[in-house]
Amino acid sequence: MDHHLCQPCSSIAAGVGRKAALGVSLARALGEGVFSAVSDVPFGESLTRDVHTSDGKAYLLLVEPLKVDERTLGMIAIFKDVSAFKAQDATKTEFVTTVSHELRSPLTLMEGYAKILRLAGNLNDQQETYLNNIITGLDEMRSLVQNLLDLGRLDSNDALEIKSVPVEDIVRRVVETMDSQAKNKNIELDVSLPDEPLMVEADAAFLVQALKNLVDNAIKYSSNKGRINLKAQKQGEAVVLTVEDFGPGIAPLDQRKIFKRFYHAESQVGVEERSGSGLGLAIVKSIAERHGGKVWFESKLGRGSSFYLQIPLKQSKKSD
Ligand code: ADP
Fold first, then answer.
1. Which residues are CB-neighbours of 27 under 8 A, at least 6 positions away?
2. pLDDT digit string (tens) for 224-245?
3. Phi and psi at residue 225, in whole multiples of 5°?
4. Which of 216, 220, 258 is the pocket-test mutation for ligand 1 (most atoms within 8 Å of CB)?
5. Which residue, judged by its Cα, is nearest atom 7 of ligand 1?
6. What is the dihedral of CA 37, 42, 48, 53, to 10 degrees?
7. At 85, phi and psi to the nearest 5?
8. Longest Cα pair distance anywhere in the chain, in angstroms?
9. Helix (H), strand (E) at residue 280
10. Residue 36 phi/psi, 5° resolution?
């Protein structure tokens, strides 16, 4: 990148005094950690990113091109010190993760006993219904606990297990896990893969989970005997995984909120029973962002929705 910012001005914006900035290289005035975060931003592009420096500080970096009459004259970079918020957030995440972890053992115990209850003697119809309700409730709790643990891992700065994996394998693993759920609703899963084998650098388990959550929603919100299209294609230096359904769609008012944690749309035509923790899409978003990618969707009420998950084929060191 050309460093079009005037050095003293940019240093003052970064909280460095004018005297300390004059005659000193931009890297020295700003500090190596902060400088390297802006040095690879392509000239003329906007960007928002978290920056962690070696002295333990966290900044929110906002970069915008400075344009006059369509001409880009330079770049403005704003660093907001968010260290205190990040520390609070880490404490909250740690608390939620500890509680979720502690809940796993009693849940396993309860599930085990509930399942062997039938072996202890015959149950009448009413008892059988109650037992099934208990097992369903325990299943939901287990998946909520697992979702909270996954979000905790994604929120923490723990490194992802990045490996080069064939996109085809990711799609195949998702189809294998979701097949019976689709068949139960008589839903056809139509898969389309790139013509050439395509490799992506990713944490395979997380990428499978992100795609699985999208397919799970597509099945959950589609009516019986529907169709879902699952497509993987190369777009530039990224793979885009698309999950298209022909379900109820998402109301404009809900569209801005569906990636929020614990959010469920108020009411959806054709969706009788609500299940799920409201964490599925939040997890997809975190997984996409931890890989330096993104997730977005298009939806029309009554027509269906398409969710797009874009993951760069190569991981830069910064995103893990
Ligand atoms: P959950 O499915 O557990 O409620 P998610 O985070 O996966 O939570 O989704 C949040 C909300 O977004 C859902 O409650 C639903 O209202 C809406 N939604 C997600 N995917 C779809 C879809 N494919 N079709 C319609 N609505 C959807």
1. 35, 36, 39
2. 999 999 999 999 999 999 999 9
3. 60, 35
4. 258
5. 280
6. 0
7. -65, -40
8. 87
9. helix 280-290
10. -65, -25
